[in-house]
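May I ask for an example protein's residues together with how it folds?

___
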Amino acid sequence: MSMSLAMLTAPAAVSATPVVTKDAAQTQAADRGQKASETTGVQMPQSYPFQPQLKTFPYNADDKSYAANLVGYANLAPRLTALMAKSDRVSTQIVGTSTSGRDLYLVTLTAPEKKHQTKAQTRWRELIQNRPAKAAKDKRLAADYKTPIWFSANIHGNEWEGTDASLQYLEELATSKSPEVAELLQNHRLYFSLTLNPDGRVAATRATALGYDPNRDMITNTLPESRSFVQTTQALLPIYSADLHGYTGVLQVEPTGPPHGENYEYDLFIPHNYAAALHIEKDVVAADISGNPLTPAGGIKIPYRDTPSGWDDYPPIFTAQYAAFFGALTSTVELPLGRTREGVMDPKSAAINVAVAKQVLRSTVDYVSANSDEILANQIEFFRRGVAGEPKVSLTEDNIAAVTGPDQWKPLWDVADNQDAVHLPRAYVIPAGVDQRSASDANALVKQLLFHGIEVGELRAPKTVDGTTYAAGSYVIDMHQPKKGLANALLDLGTDISAKVPSMYDISAWSYSYLWGATVDKVGDISDAPIRAVRSIDAPVRQAAAPKKAQHLTFEVAGLADYRALNDLLGQDATTWLLPTGQAVIAPQDRAKAVNAAYEHDVALRPSTKAEMSAIAAGSAKELEEVTVGYVGNQEALSSLQELGFDPVKVDAAAINDSPTVLDDLDVLWVSSELSFTSEQQAGRDALKDWLADGNALVGAGSNALAAASGFGLVSAVGQAGPRRSNGIVAVDTPADSLLAPHAQDYAFVYPPLSFTELGAGTKAEQFYAEGNPLLAGHWRGDGAAAPEAAGGKASVISGQSADGGKAVVFGTSVFFRNHPKGGIGQVGQAIFWAAPDGS
């Protein structure tokens, strides 16, 4: 499978004129069914070429691609259609749609395959992942498996040129008469995701149309764009994956600098990845592309070699770092020349970036195809370690000498590069029954794990593990599985890496177990015997249930689905009370509404107890009515409030001042962005003050919420923020009389942390940072009052009430951060219903 394409020359450009595809029957059978779905993932073709009729999108003169003479989104389908008409090497699938409904294209370039050949490729791909020991001995696989190489581009919409370079490169190969190209495509599949964020491409925005950065969403998956990427990764199982970005002044190609994620099999990852970067550097320098800047040393930038801190591969939230958990070599490629002050590309700079990107593509394919046998063997070994459940061996200075393969990387490895030790459990157990904080959050977590291809089982009978007896129905994530590394990366706590490096590129901690609201136990050692009586599942076990007789019905309000059910009922005017212990009670006349909501949102109803009815009779339960929430915040606030089942209304100081009646229909105002009124906006300030005096409430997070709540006399406290980039998982303590005591949580996420001191009369601490250093995992460096130890024992959540009756809750934790801390979002639900006016 070895060859060089360095001498390949580009043919004439392919026409962008629309052409009807040659296989209409294939198109009709597809019926656009090649799109990604939440349940089935990306459905790969049964033979190649696969050439359906692509939907055409209307020309959009406002597409910012055109400002740089780059291809507009509307031109992609006609251009691909024309190329498919010219070449049986080209296939195009729709693997999802963007937030605004634009198709996400996956283009495959390979020699034609009949059905039995494609079936064999699929069988080998599954063998590599699920039976890697057998795959390693399969001679047919070694000889005939088409190793997949994947290029993606434009996940940041205003980083355009990777799309154009990919399109031009695949056009070259599709129509080339070169025997070297024919051999390449006989032995490999080249995949191109032309634009991962078409809405951002058109609008010249880094974010998607939803306002999120999709290259921070690979494990939260709020966005359809990130969900498509995850499912495409699973479907392709690439041996190499490069994601094209911009702009860093000089071409930059990974691998990264430290710290390195603890769960990567770095001995399989770094040797060829660094050698590939060096090969790209050599070719780019030799190409002598006019206008392409080089470093003072006359090369490109390779973070592993050139960036000791601040460009790391630690969190799996990025495309490249996520794909590495599928045994792929990966790189985020940053093109050199940046945007103009107007936020678009100058045509000359764009042309240089396209030329540089094409050279990167050629050089990558050249290196990977020449070394694909060894790279594939490493991928098979990656999965073998997972299936075998081998303990994690961290790569350190002490054992790098034993690593085989290219060794250019070894002299550069130092103590900062050492992977931290990881203890792998035999399993993670998500308890069922009374030991589970939230059954609904537990099911949501299991659904998320299954989405990422993590194997999950269910206990068929009670089982005692490490002295704890788990009820039947508990979920078990056995760590003897192909995606062992990804499973542990998603579920483990992580490490306090504050002392390891001075700075991090992005977040330094994340964890489904600690931040997603469910109780999760880490049990045993990976070398222990397996937990028996476990059946494999492909979906969470539904919790919905309802007693048959008409009576008061109760359900726990602990997880996000519970809050959605509660808001559903209140939207139907169901008579509902919220008990101080965290349960909702529905009156008998609204039984049908309750049952429908239970099955819609998968929550379990039970008969209300005498004690619960006595609480209602005694007036200690809060009667509820539908709560309308306004928000002063960004997309994170909107999405998180929607996830709780609210239909939030966006407001700000100007909107309130211009139309004070906007407050009339609101019960609670969420604040996470600045809410301040100028001297010319006194009418708006007075309107908000009167609204609060009517018994309405302000709930929010961070310094903006503290300023607003303090400014209206709702709380009295001094806020102390940690350093701006400090972030991580912290331990918290909740008093027994706190509004957050029902279904209390022991952990929170901060970015950055905010603690409260000097609490005045009427201001109450509802939650505290744990004593000492509360940081459990992450990166928080600071001195004096900004140090994590200074926050220990201080309030992390406060509440208050004005003399007029308005309430406030202010979080110092980052409850809505990128929509990731699901447990934190649930705490906001608690705060809103505590603060909202009484429905009675």
In short: The radius of gyration is 28 Å.
